[in-house]
Amino acid sequence: MSEELEVWQRGPLPDITPMLQPVGHALLQAREEVDRYMRDFPASLLWERPAGLASPGFHLQHLSGVLDRVFTYARGAQLNAFQFEQLHAEGKDIPEGLTVAALVERFNKQVDVAMAQLRSIPAEILAEYRGIGRAGLPSTVIGLLVHGAEHTMRHVGQLMVTAKVLQDGQSK
């Protein structure tokens, strides 16, 4: 029965402060949905952009990248050269060709990293200031973590719709 329930309905996540439970629930829900909806997705449609929408490949890259970047800022760190490379690569295939499985696995690993970070965050630092980017735009630890979760779910929804439109169009 627990597979039928959404992650938030299954109870508290161990070792995560109560204030961050919704963030963890959203990230784990996103992982389950990406795994489910991309399981049999054809590689030939990965970079298609129906009606000019972002491609499924972009969403998969962006899901991993944004989670990495936002959680980096939540730690109080700045982005490194590799993170900037990943940012500039979003929406682009590579000569060898990215696979659906590789992009899903990258996202799954990033969720694991994010969950480990959530487990390490004490409640007392959630309101601490965190600057975003070189400009140091104002946010807080909890603000960044919540944004990471909601942004992830927003792109998962867009990915699911785009993948469905592409797959339905292919079967006609």
3D shape: globular
Order of helices and strands: HHHHEEH
β-strand number: 2
SS-based structural class?
Answer: mainly alpha
**Strand sequence of the main sheet, in spatial order?**
1-2
Q: Per DSSP, what share of the residues sits in E-state strands of 2 or more residues?
A: under 5%
Radius of gyration: 17 Å
Measured between the Cα atoms of the first and last residue, the distance is 35 Å
Number of helices: 5
What's the layout of helices and strands?
Elements: H1 21-38, H2 56-74, H3 81-89, H4 100-119, E1 129-132, E2 137-140, H5 141-170
Helix pairs in contact: 1-4, 1-5, 2-3, 2-4, 2-5
General description of the model:
The chain has 172 residues and is mainly alpha-helical. Helix content is 56%, strand content 5%. The protein has helices at residues 21-38, 56-74, 81-89, 100-119, 141-170; strands spanning 129-132, 137-140. A two-stranded antiparallel sheet has the order 1-2. α2 (56-74) packs antiparallel against α3 and α2 (56-74) packs parallel to α4. The protein is globular and about 55 Å long. The chain starts with 20 loop residues before the first helix and ends with a helix. The mean pLDDT is 93.
